[in-house]
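Q: How would the structure tokens look for this protein?
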Amino acid sequence: MIVRPMVIVFWVHTALVIASWLSLLWYIFKGKYFLAIHLSPLATLLFYLLSTFLFGSGGLDLA
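A: Here is the predicted structure in token form.
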């Protein structure tokens, strides 16, 4: 129950990792590089670190 709010972040991160790999394959086969898509999984990791730093690992209960 503690990590329940972070399940959405996990699924978004998984989708962005898949998109990152697909952008890398696109670069290999087509020659066009999308840096923003390739680095997008870092955004979810930074969001997780920032939310853990601000709110703690117990969720978003600010009481």
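Helices lie at 7-30, 35-39, 41-55.

The longest helix spans residues 7-30.

Upvote if useful.
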